[in-house]
């Protein structure tokens, strides 16, 4: 009884013959049991009131129970023989036929008026039930799969008690309507209703039993027990030989003793304590058994596919409390007072229900354990012996009840008190046997009210044998959740400074925690490792948090080598575990502190994912990569229950309905309520006056502004896909995008179209004119919805609750630097997962305000500038021109901006034009799109006091893939969260790796290769281009096309672009490295507005395959001087362009985003060097 697991061999496979809870056989078994139990109780409670006038209440109740119970003792061996020797289905059907005959005999005995014959019939009914029981319970594990046993037994318990309750009520009412008397029996017509009910139920039950599938005999060669006593003794010895099974059988027997006494006592309690008539006893009996049904279901649900014996002591405690409450209630009834009787009657119903619930919690785990732990070959005998013990206790109960009432003259209330007091030592004994399981169950129940726990991959835990669980470490509760979710005991490895605390020491000792302390020297450390190894070798589960400490940043820290020392040589597997979503809870370090913060949600979601066993891990980095991959799976799993951006937008706007949410440089400022009002109004107007019902893709031509935000939000909550068109492209490229996305309508404004006239192949809608069509009614309706209507009602009305998270949020067209723009399809899940990861790292709060200077046709502008403030309790302000440094400075100062994203080129503008006073509120500046020179970063820090860091992303990654966390947002100074010269580490739930561009094999840390990214931020694909999608997304990994190195801490350094390499003489020559060197040579540090002066590309070459070409603007330094400086840098000869490979141009072609227009640069080079190429 000290085990709480369902143990199976690792090679065990699901038996195809075994079914689920809705299989025909199991449903037929339930139906058979339902009608059988109902008929048993209906017949017995029809007979008891008949016998009461003849022999008295106590004797009638006790004798009826004894006659029904005695056959279980006398026929235990025969019942076990039948259940093992023959098909259990055959036994069940035969018992049901016997039930029909017994019911007919019972009616005949009433007609004869023979009391003794009636009790003989009750005994025959007991014989039928005794033979039926082992076959019924033994068939459950043969019909159901192992992981359905707990719930299957719960349902069987439910069916039994519900049918028993109906039988109690029906039996009493049959007596009330027919009033049969043994002294003056009437004609058959007087009891015809009873005869029809009893025989009819038996016949229907027999028919249903035929639907149970044929079951193979467990032991077809077993001999008949001609010596029942010897056979019973053998069964008893078999049960006694297993201490856990014997203790469990004692627990089950104790339950049935209490249940029998309570059942008899309720009859006396209702009549003598509450003053009820016989027919009114039914509800009291019914509520008791309905409570047992509820407890049975609850036990099945709480067990969650396992056998949770820790629930048993909880049930025992409930029995004690409710029994004593019934004692006090019954003793408090004022005789003759109708109001008092009614009040205490209602109170008694409550206590009886809770007594039943507690009893169900007590019994079901024991019954399930008994079934599962008994071997198939001896299961019938084991269950027969257990039944023998249970019914022996029931027989004792009948005698004890008679003695209590007749000899000791105890009232029904006092009997309830005795039952409660008897349960106290039983509960204490069980707790002493199962302290771990009991505490585990209590903690589990408490945690379920605070946390919403989801477990995936539980089947990957080995059913037996040792293993090392390796998990990430997010919060103080990680270990507790792992103990709760494992079906087997887990020994945690923890720092001794934590587990030796006097408040938790007893608990950690109870759970056999393995203390470890690196400060005690190598000997103590090795002793802890040896303890862990020994535990694994002994077949135990051990868990280590391989990072060595709680994360202070949300990042997965590098795994320590200790895990390899523990597992190496044991032959046991490593089970990777990923704990998701606890970062941000009060027990994590989110926000820079533990505990002292309000929970962000209630109940707080927690996901735990167990990965497939790693049989031979190469090293700790191998294990870490597997755990990281589980993190990606966990993040992807979130989409099954997380809200999509439009739903979160509605809620966050309502949270700030009276506080500023967005603003722009034109002076427009809107609260959350006004933003939502505007979005709802725009949605209403567009649906009414512009869009066709099936119109999905909508073009938007607006700068980053309040208007742009509201339009994008209105389209999102309409279930449409906003496509922000790149207005820096040529008219032909814009129309190419419109055609590709099948855009029929483009939304813009009169002011914008006047500044940027574009001839578009679509219906152009001027929003200025559309606003004029809004009526007072339209505005009032939207205002009412935004400020007063609950968010969930709005979602249902506009149809957001059924939107698939994998549906498109937007399509963003690339800038076309290497050809025609490609449409990148980003889903709702792409967007929300990217924002979640950014929030995990940046620790966003309500005081944060982001400055949006990047256009919404840029993926960073769309995800981070637009949707991140919409999905978080923060503010945003916008300015359409990132080069307008003076206005940017004023915006930062006015709205107390705390963070913004920029390019290094734009930072130079801010450095020259903005003052430290304007930027004093800033504490986070992230750059991207081009390399951040460290000299620029230091200069920026010296002036503004904030060190800008680099991040990395692409449109296809929604866009953020990696980022450096600056000291201003770093919660733990001991954690490495930024490295100059790198673009940071992959964000949470995202993985990065480098591969050999030729073989596509993974490369070790530090080696340069193609950068691949995997995570929930990877795009759905390219619009209308499955072939290109398949080229860049391989098994979930996105080929960024960038060359990079990844160091041992996971920091990524971009070394070049695949398309910006030339293969010269068989070697890869990086354009970017040459560009950086020449730029350093020719740049003037005193120049007010530094511009792009050079660009490196390549053209075909007949001798070496390709040749380098340098495009440059007119400058004050000669080509020869540049080449001399390049040679001083000691570059490989193939990297040095020849003197005739320099091409002077008026300007370096750039895209609207400020990036190099590589296609145009290549075109200029090919035109200039075409004759040289052909020659």
UniProtKB/TrEMBL annotation:
* A GO molecular-function descriptor: acyltransferase activity
In terms of InterPro entries, this protein maps to:
AMP-bd_C_sf, AMP-binding_CS, AMP-dep_synth/lig_dom, ANL_N_sf, MFS, MFS_trans_sf, Plipid/glycerol_acylTrfase
Give the highest taxon in the source lineage. Bacteria
Which segments cross the bilayer? 21-38, 58-83, 90-110, 116-135, 155-175, 187-210, 245-264, 284-302, 309-330, 342-362, 382-404, 410-431, 850-871
Keywords assigned by UniProt, alphabetized = Ligase, Membrane, Transmembrane, Transmembrane helix
Span of domain Phospholipid/glycerol acyltransferase: 467-582
Q: Does the keyword Mitochondrion apply?
A: no
Q: Which Pfam families match?
A: Acyltransferase, AMP-binding, MFS_1
SMART domains (UniProt xref):
PlsC (SM00563)
**Record flagged with keyword Mitochondrion:** no
Regarding protein family, the annotation reads: Belongs to the ATP-dependent AMP-binding enzyme family.
What protein name does the entry list?
Answer: Bifunctional protein Aas
Q: Which species does the entry assign this protein to? A: Gimesia aquarii
Which gene does this sequence derive from? aas
